[in-house]
Amino acid sequence: MENARELFQIMTRRFGLLNKNCCSIGGNDVSLVQSHILYEVDRQHNPSMQQIAETLGTDITTFSRQVQSLIKMNLVKKTPDPQDRRVHTLALTTEGKFVATTIDMQMNDYLNEVFSYMTDFEKETVLHSVKIFNDAMAKSNKCCGPLSE
Amino acid sequence: MENARELFQIMTRRFGLLNKNCCSIGGNDVSLVQSHILYEVDRQHNPSMQQIAETLGTDITTFSRQVQSLIKMNLVKKTPDPQDRRVHTLALTTEGKFVATTIDMQMNDYLNEVFSYMTDFEKETVLHSVKIFNDAMAKSNKCCGPLSE
DNA sequence: AACATATATTTGCAACATGCAAGTAATACA
DNA sequence: TGTATTACTTGCATGTTGCAAATATATGTT
């Protein structure tokens, strides 16, 4: 387990598996993609469809349909922008906020469990490292564009 | 950007986007899932279908079909085990090895580019951190099982 | 040997996700 | 006014997914 790609490959796979499981809240069965949408809608302030789709690297047409599902599930609401009625801004409903918060808590619970196998110092080092790595990725131009933050 | 989940969410999303793009080698268009299969078949010694499917957390039926595609693309070969002819072991073809190696190189190139925005010390810290984190995840029982290594 | 049972893999099917091309609706600009 | 641009939605064709059921081989029991 020596090269960089190997380390990241394993990490992201495991993290992906985690995400896959832990997205059923109450009656709602939220897919991984949908949980990413909820996350970003929550994070950004009254984002437009385009903004979120671009952040997530999804085709806008696929995204449009995903949003339709989330609206049917009553987790997201879509409002035409009074300034420019072509754009539609997204927001979480009360239920959507609840679901997003619950997912967030579950993920943090899991991460804390993982951190419990480390010393406090290691935990801080890991968190700091991820931060450094994200910042570096954001600066990179070789791939994937800037993508928000 | 303060909580742990947030950091990991952003990181895995970006890394996922990266993976999405960089899997076209020569005439072969390899999907993300397929690149993970190539990676694991390469890593494990004459693995069975089940072994890889379980490592990757994919349903065996989906996996069976993915392998069929890879065989059609001439990247993987499947041999019935002489000891127990129910099990079929997987191996990369020469072309498959080439593709897997190329993907690996591309990913490492990208990672090195990302690392170029850090000091050497930071790079070492990040790699060490991912290693620690993977080990901790492997120990965790809350989710996702042990899953190889 | 004959039979039931267990295991490894494959196929049938139905649901869903994806992205391109083409459509609609609203704005901008000449 | 008319033409281009932008934001978003629908049609379609393709691909992925996983459950249930089928096949093929192995193992255990009588």
Automatic annotation (TrEMBL), chains A, B:
Q: Which InterPro entries match?
A: HTH_MarR-typ (IPR000835), MarR/SlyA-like (IPR039422), WH-like_DNA-bd_sf (IPR036388), WH_DNA-bd_sf (IPR036390)
> Superkingdom, according to UniProt?
Bacteria
Leader sequence range is: none
Keyword list, A-Z: DNA-binding
Q: Where is the HTH marR-type domain?
A: 4-135
UniProt-recorded Gene Ontology molecular function terms: DNA binding; DNA-binding transcription factor activity
A Gene Ontology annotation in the biological process aspect, one of them, is:
response to stress
| UniProt protein name | MarR family transcriptional regulator
